[in-house]
Amino acid sequence: MIAIVDYGVGNLKSVNKAFQYLGFQSLITSDPKEIDKSDAIVLPGVGAFKDAMEQLKKNDLAQCIKENAEKKKLILGICLGMQLLYEKSYEDGEWEGLGLLKGEIVKFNSQLKIPHMGWNKLSKRFDDDLGRGIQDGEYVYFVHSYYLDTHAKDDILFNTQYDVDVPAVVRNGNIIGMQFHPEKSGGTGLKLLRNFGELIK
């Protein structure tokens, strides 16, 4: 069972539908006990970093996610959910994240239109089971004004370009992030979600 964490923000139903379409059992829940029983966790997200962290802490979900991460359970953060996995964000202030991965979330400093919205292509950096069947140059759907800045370059499986190198898919062991919306990214997004589901032991 894949637990999709409901903390008041996020594209929950479309993520749930995508997993069920692929044949995986998934459940939208805000109950830490259900999350503890799950085989994997998905942290979706749309909106502001600060508000999302406050909701996670208020409902004891932040601690629940951290404890499951320590048990080596697979965790996937999507869009804002990926950013929450990191140490800190500078979105409208300076806010502490879950700290499961090393790096900070910073604003685009670019002449290009912000937010970075629409289809952009993936550039593969490393082979990994998560990216199985994904070719260089496949397109996925982004909506974000902030991006990951990290020295942990070996965690970055795919980049995209938007004036700067933008980490698009990251993985460190059981902790995985996708800056785009795989559930809105057609066949490429479904392949990535299927690969994630197949990583579950």
Would you kindly provide a written description of the structure presented here, covering whatever features stand out?
By secondary structure, the protein is α/β, with parallel strands linked by helices. The chain has a single domain, classed as Rossmann fold, CATH 3.40.50. It has six helices and 14 strands. An eight-stranded mixed beta sheet has the order 2-1-3-4-14-13-12-9, sandwiched between helices. Strand 13 and strand 14 form a beta hairpin. The radius of gyration is 15 Å and the shape is globular.
In short:
This protein has 201 residues and is α/β, with parallel strands linked by helices. Helix content is 27%, strand content 30%.
- Terminal CA distance reads 11 Å
CATH structural fold name = Rossmann fold
CA radius of gyration: 15 Å
Note the run of SSEs as H and E: EHEHEHHEHEEEEEEEEEEH
Supply database-style keywords.
Rossmann fold; 201 residues; alpha/beta; globular; 4-stranded mixed β-sheet
Topology:
Blueprint: E1 2-5, H1 12-21, E2 26-29, H2 32-37, E3 40-43, H3 49-58, H4 61-70, E4 74-78, H5 80-84, E5 88-89, E6 95-96, E7 104-107, E8 116-121, E9 123-124, E10 139-144, E11 146-149, E12 156-161, E13 165-172, E14 175-178, H6 186-199
